Amino acid sequence: MKQKILFLFALLALLCGSIPTPTNASVPHDVLISELSWAGSSLSAADEWVELANISNEPVDVSGWSLSGASNAPIVFPAGSLIEAHTTFLITNYANTNTSTALNTSPQIVTTMVSLPNEKFAITLNAPDRGVVDSAGNGGAPFAGESGGTGDAAHGRYRSMERISALLEGNTKDAWTHAETSNGFKDTTLDQGTPGSLNTFLQTHLIENASASTVSAPLIATEPATAAESEHLCSDVVIDTPVISTPEQALFEPIVEQSVLPSVPETEPTPPSPTQETTIPEISVTSPQGTLRISEIFSRPALGDSEWVEVENYSAYPVTTNGWSILDASSASTAFPNEVILPGAFLVIENPKGKLNNDG
Questions:
Q1: For residue range 186-198, what is the model confidence (pLDDT) as tens digits?
Q2: Which of 27, 49, 274, 299 has the greatest number of CB atoms lying within 10 Å of its CB?
């Protein structure tokens, strides 16, 4: 009798273990710490700032949220603090009109509380209803960024600590790098960073994941027990078809919608004649929100004319160009004017800095 009971318990454990249990896939943050200037700027050591980014498709109200570790006391965001989809939120020591700042972009919060440590670096973004939303650093030295001093040499410039992954936690070194480009600064400075705009890594993340197609659920080779069997064997196991999704699917809706294919006829279809065109179902493509592309370049003007680069908004949403720029191979950056490009509209940038090479 004892042997039979042991056998039944072993069978029960085997059956319960063979039943697939759905698991929740981890999802990236909707708001994350995207960039920090812990060393100040070429104009002032106190010219420090922290940038947040909303990489979701919806505005996020961050009223009452706070930053810890970026000052002697938590910096609490005031009521009405909102980060629009695919935009940034800048917290600085100085307004951009101050002569002590290198910034040429308007911050959302200006407070003299900002004081980022050069060691024991551990910044957290906190929400009253969510706890710690994101972090930067692990309590040691900053993972990236540099304090400048030698001016023209790229490695000697002031460089921010820039987020390169939306999927890795901010307390891991691989989530960060030194800023390599310059945008959002006054023309008189050589500092590197992108304060007030999404950097290239996060823009690429948005575009790639918004374009990702839905991943089908994998087939499971094992045959699960029936619902009736599982009810008697394992009362705590629920049989259901698992829904497998990628982390990106939780934040970004796929932008490719395929039309329904025609049903297969019961009879053999008549082959088309050589002159008859075969109808192929069209694929409707909608570009991700906030997307511009270079649509035309004029690099060989006649004497007295201007070079120019044309960009097009080929998404279905208006794009605010504040923070966008054109960067050439010599790192010469031309900032866009602060305008709104409507869907299907164009913007022409005349005589970009660095000029357009006619060879190379």
A1: 988 889 999 999 9
A2: 49
